[in-house]
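User: Teach me something about this protein's shape.
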Amino acid sequence: MYRKNRVVHGFTLMEMLLAVAIMAVLTAIAIPAYNGYIDKTKNDLAISYLIGIQMEIERYYTREFRYPNALSDITSVLPNNGKDPWGRDYVYLNIIEGGPGTHGDVRKDGALNPINTKYDLYSLGKNGVTKKQISLKDSLDDIILARDGGFVGLAADF
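Assistant: First, the predicted structure itself:
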């Protein structure tokens, strides 16, 4: 009898499983790397905004000879209207001209020394939670201004 040769097009089950397994491994590597990139980008943007806000606060001081009582006094000139990359307001505390009890609200380092003398300015960071002592776990992702502007960055790096 006569037998026709068949040409088969397509993948076998094993080839398909191998392709899916390779895609799963690549995805498992790529997603955490991408999320790390997004976090770093948002942190860098928050630092940039924080420096811009610091400049506006210092301009206000130059014009008025005092620091603003709240960021709402200068909201119109703040980058991103005073919002951090996570959509929350930056936190500001006027230390020099603050009333009674202000010194109890200032941010402190691991040795409980105040990190600023003029004003505190920071973002709550990715998790949106903070503590007064910046070396505690909830504060490590905060973007802070410390040493009266000498340091701007992650609290974990301070």
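Now, about its shape. The beta strands are 91-94, 119-123, 143-146, 151-154. The chain has a mean pLDDT of 89. If you'd like, I can walk through any region in more detail.
User: That's plenty for now, thanks!
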